[in-house]
């Protein structure tokens, strides 16, 4: 397939917005999906003595307690400094609390750790967030908060998790699809379209509160770079609220329909949480009290406050939907009738989003694959979050609040007092991981560079700035332990982004040079802090492989001594080669970097020499043909003979030295040739500038050619025979598991869908789908399914389903506990499966139920648990 380069992308309206935003002529990214999905139970909101953030700020407190460092909400947006926020609040008439944020289990409640228990999906977004769409599935039955917590706490590690879909609250499709769409009329003009669809069989009522509020920055005293004067939202007239903020300026929220305007303050309800009133009658949880408990005195009759929502009571017929339109804009940005051009702007932005993704899609990609890629990009873009954490202020406490317990000065992150985070950052996940992880972010920037190169470069540079990087050169890992150690992939990500965002001769050399200079500090930190004996064998700690080592490598060893790690050393070899590549590139136009290239060349040789020959064989075991960690205790080296990915990591550290590039660098070439002649002894141990007979280029790698062949073969040989013996039976079970989907597969094949697309919908392999089609004589483009629904066919389907569930259970047992966690599917596929299960069973055997209260046929629905992850 031909690869389309950035230079071949046709400019679109979205590309123009990206250009204007990068040049700072327009602030197109001021508003975006930067609102976290969970601010409660985060480290930065934890002021406890011993750092137990899950217990200090639980979900039950979130509706009543003002946050110090951020905000959260449901399918929401905020400005880039999280001053003014917008999100949805919902109530189905049965829940014990107003649904203002996503619910999930804490680390101690979940049998597999913390876990969000909701169905929600990121469906679309452009890089400037000129158009966005997300979906939340809200049950019409009471949400089972207690059951999810109690049952998952009871289950052990080996048991599957109880998911929301397993509780029966979606039976008979009794739920609402609540979608939130955003379109920008200008950089300070955001149109909001909320669509609520009743998927159930009966008329249902939903309370909808589109909520606008200010982050509380006025209750803490003086805060660096924050506006501490209290802002204001007030009702200007029916359908229009006026918004004032000293920094943000004057805004307005226009809303249609007969929504009842509600006002309160975004301040803590101390009477509920602490048992004493503060004199503030209108508090954060006022809308909950008003809607759920009918307390009209909870909201401000003066119709002013820092939190506002029009309250809609929607009566929706089965299969029908209702739309609510709003518009948040700076004063003077829109005409007198704020909703007059609403539909036209939405249509334009949706068309422009299609044009943008058409322009960047690889040549020849099929439509279904592009849909998957586009929703994957939506997941990345919706996971950008405002992250605010100033360690010095967090440790000291705020002037207007009680002093934090002194134990905190000896606890978490106390050595990072320089750290000042107040930025939009790409998150691993805005509920389970609503804090940055440096090495996750490095990987995120690879796909980000295809849709927003400027953002990718800025993110990579941000973590090397002096208010992030420690003065000693270490990069912050994640908020639970900034001093922990992640694999050094930042240089690789910067190098890849540099090469992916322009053709040769037109790349952003200033970006490369800036990152290289700062990465020198980080590389030096690794050499000084993680090479315990100065012999080029490294220990890292948490290196992305935390569950496969003999010891917890982030903590002191119970045996004493220290580890010399095969993967830690391999990562440093990898880091060295990346820095070598960057130096060689920079040296093409600035000969000063030739010496740096020589330094990294020789440092890599030192690492490979130590890894392969120090003490005789280094970390290589000649008998086993594998690299092992070694434990050094009392002067003795003890290999830890555990065959895992640790021993394969050395294979990834390799680099191709282009002869044409080397010939342009006489200083580096001369030094390299001298070294080749001086250290001829290394040729048998490492791939040491071995010359390619076709290109004349030289290859550098940690293992020699022989070891490069032996290590993966020895690691995999033990498993090959076992895998082959199980392959036929495993494939047979996969085919059996597809029996209940016969008509759906026949219908999809009739429509011309590919095996890969069908496999994606059913969470199986394309090979299994292909074999299933062959077994049942299903041709692509063949006849549509015509089988009638009869009692016999239903009984046959139920028997097939039992076989399928048994097969799935066997497969899950083979795959382990991780196989029980399903990824999200497209929202429409989820609704189709639910509808199919209900209609097929209800048409023949009404009122059937089985243990657990779920409708037969809904087994496949478990696969729909979604968070919109790419």
Protein described:
With 870 residues, this protein is an alpha+beta fold. The chain contains 23 helices and 27 strands. Strands 6-7-8-9-17-13-12-11-15 form a 9-stranded antiparallel sheet. It is globular, with a radius of gyration of 29 Å. The model is unreliable at 1-8, 718-728, 786-799 and 812-870 (pLDDT under 50).
Q: What secondary-structure arrangement, pairings included, does this model have?
A:
Blueprint: H1 13-22, E1 31-32, H2 53-56, H3 59-62, E2 74-79, E3 84-91, E4 104-105, E5 115-116, E6 120-125, E7 131-139, H4 145-154, E8 175-186, E9 189-198, E10 204-214, E11 232-237, E12 240-245, E13 249-255, E14 260-264, H5 270-274, H6 286-293, E15 304-305, E16 307-316, E17 321-330, H7 342-360, H8 367-382, E18 384-390, H9 391-396, E19 420-426, H10 438-451, H11 453-462, H12 490-500, H13 509-530, E20 562-564, H14 566-587, H15 593-613, E21 620-621, E22 626-627, E23 629-633, E24 636-640, E25 654-657, H16 659-662, H17 666-678, E26 687-691, E27 698-701, H18 705-737, H19 742-750, H20 755-762, H21 766-776, H22 791-815, H23 827-842
Helix pairs in contact: 10-11, 10-12, 11-12, 12-13, 13-14, 14-15, 15-17, 18-21, 18-22, 20-21
List how many beta strands DSSP finds.
Answer: 27
The main β sheet shows up as: 9 strands, antiparallel
Specify the structural class: alpha+beta
Q: Residue ranges: pLDDT <50 for 5 or more in a row?
A: 1-8, 718-728, 786-799, 812-870
End-to-end distance: 23 Å
Radius of gyration: 29 Å
Average pLDDT reading: 84
Global shape:
globular
């Amino acid at each position: 397939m031909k690869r389309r380069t950035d230079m071949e992308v046709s400019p679109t309206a979205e590309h123009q917005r990206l250009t204007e935003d990068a040049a700072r002529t327009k602030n197109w990214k001021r508003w975006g999906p930067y609102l976290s999905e969970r601010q409660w139970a985060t480290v930065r909101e934890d002021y406890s003595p011993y750092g137990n953030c899950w217990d200090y700020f639980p979900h039950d407190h979130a509706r009543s307690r003002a946050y110090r460092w951020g905000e959260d909400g449901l399918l929401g947006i905020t400005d880039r400094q999280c001053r003014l926020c917008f999100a949805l609040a919902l109530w189905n008439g049965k829940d014990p609390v107003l649904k203002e944020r996503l619910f999930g289990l804490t680390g101690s409640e979940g049998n597999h750790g913390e876990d969000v228990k909701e169905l929600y999906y990121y469906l679309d977004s452009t890089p400037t967030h000129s158009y966005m769409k997300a979906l939340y599935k809200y049950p019409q039955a009471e949400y089972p908060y207690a059951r999810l917590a109690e049952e998952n706490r009871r289950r052990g590690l080996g048991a599957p998790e109880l998911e929301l879909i397993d509780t029966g609250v979606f039976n008979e499709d009794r739920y609402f699809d609540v979608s939130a769409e955003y379109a920008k009329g200008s950089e300070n003009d955001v149109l909001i379209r909320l669509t609520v669809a009743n998927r159930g069989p009966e008329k249902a009522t939903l309370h909808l509160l589109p909520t606008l509020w200010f982050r509380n920055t006025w209750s803490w005293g003086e805060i660096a770079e924050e506006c501490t004067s209290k802002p204001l939202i007030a009702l200007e007239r029916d359908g229009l609220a006026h918004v004032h903020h000293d920094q943000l300026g004057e805004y307005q929220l226009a809303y249609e329909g007969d929504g009842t305007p509600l006002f309160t303050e975004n301040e803590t309800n101390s009477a509920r949480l602490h048992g004493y009133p503060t004199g503030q009658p209108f508090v954060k949880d006022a809308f909950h009290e008003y809607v759920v408990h009918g307390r009209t005195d909870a909201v401000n009759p003066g119709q002013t406050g820092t939190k506002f929502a029009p309250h809609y009571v929607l009566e929706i017929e089965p299969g029908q939907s209702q739309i609510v339109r709003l518009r948040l804009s700076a004063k003077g940005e829109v005409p007198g009738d704020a909703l007059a051009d609403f539909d036209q702007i939405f249509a334009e932005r949706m068309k422009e989003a299609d044009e943008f993704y058409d322009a960047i899609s690889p040549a020849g990609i099929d439509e279904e694959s592009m849909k998957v890629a586009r929703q994957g990009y939506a997941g990345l873009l919706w996971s950008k979050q405002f992250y605010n954490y100033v360690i010095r202020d967090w440790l000291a406490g705020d002037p207007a609040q009680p002093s934090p317990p002194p134990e905190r000065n000896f606890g978490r992150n106390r050595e990072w007092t320089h750290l000042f985070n107040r930025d939009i950052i790409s998150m691993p996940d805005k509920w389970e991981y609503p804090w940055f992880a440096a090495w996750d972010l490095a990987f995120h920037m690879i796909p980000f560079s295809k849709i927003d190169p400027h953002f990718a470069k800025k993110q990579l540079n941000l973590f090397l700035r002096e208010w992030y990087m420690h003065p000693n050169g270490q990069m912050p890992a994640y908020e639970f332990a900034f001093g922990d150690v992640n694999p050094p992939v930042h240089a690789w990500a910067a190098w890849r982004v540099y090469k992916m965002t322009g053709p040769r001769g037109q790349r952003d050399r200033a970006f490369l040079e800036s990152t290289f200079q700062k990465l020198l500090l980080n590389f030096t930190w690794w050499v000084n802090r993680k090479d315990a004996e100065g012999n080029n064998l490294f220990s890292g700690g948490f290196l992305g492989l935390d569950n496969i080592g003999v010891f917890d490598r982030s903590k002191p060893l119970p045996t004493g001594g220290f580890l010399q790690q095969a993967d830690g050393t391999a990562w440093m070899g990898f880091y060295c080669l990346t820095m070598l590549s960057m130096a060689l590139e920079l040296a093409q136009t600035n000969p000063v970097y030739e010496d740096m290239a020589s330094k990294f060349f020789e440092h890599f040789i030192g690492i490979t020499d130590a890894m392969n020959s120090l003490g005789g064989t280094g970390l290589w075991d000649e008998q086993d043909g594998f690299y092992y960690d070694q434990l050094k205790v009392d002067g003795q080296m003890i290999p830890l003979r555990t065959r895992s990915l640790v021993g394969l990591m050395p294979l990834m550290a390799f680099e191709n030295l282009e002869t044409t590039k080397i010939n342009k660098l006489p200083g580096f070439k001369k030094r390299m040739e001298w070294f080749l002649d001086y250290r001829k002894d290394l040729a048998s141990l490492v791939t040491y500038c071995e010359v390619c007979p076709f290109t004349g280029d030289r290859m550098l790698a940690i293992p020699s050619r022989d070891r490069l062949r032996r290590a993966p073969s020895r690691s995999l040989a033990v498993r090959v025979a076992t895998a082959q013996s199980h392959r036929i039976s495993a494939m047979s079970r996969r085919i059996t598991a597809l029996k209940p989907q016969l008509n759906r597969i026949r219908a999809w094949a009739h429509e011309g869908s590919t095996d890969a697309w069908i496999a994606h919908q059913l969470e199986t392999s394309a090979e299994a789908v292909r074999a299933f089609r062959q077994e049942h004589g299903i041709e692509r483009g063949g006849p549509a399914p015509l089988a009638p629904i009869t009692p016999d066919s239903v009984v046959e389907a139920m028997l097939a389903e039992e076989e399928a569930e048994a097969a799935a259970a066997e497969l899950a047992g083979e795959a382990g506990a991780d196989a029980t966690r399903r990824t999200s599917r497209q929202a429409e596929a989820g609704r189709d499966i639910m509808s199919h299960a209900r209609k097929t069973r209800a048409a023949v055997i009404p009122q059937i139920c089985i243990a657990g209260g779920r409708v037969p046929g809904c087994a496949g629905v478990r696969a729909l648990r979604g968070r919109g992850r790419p």
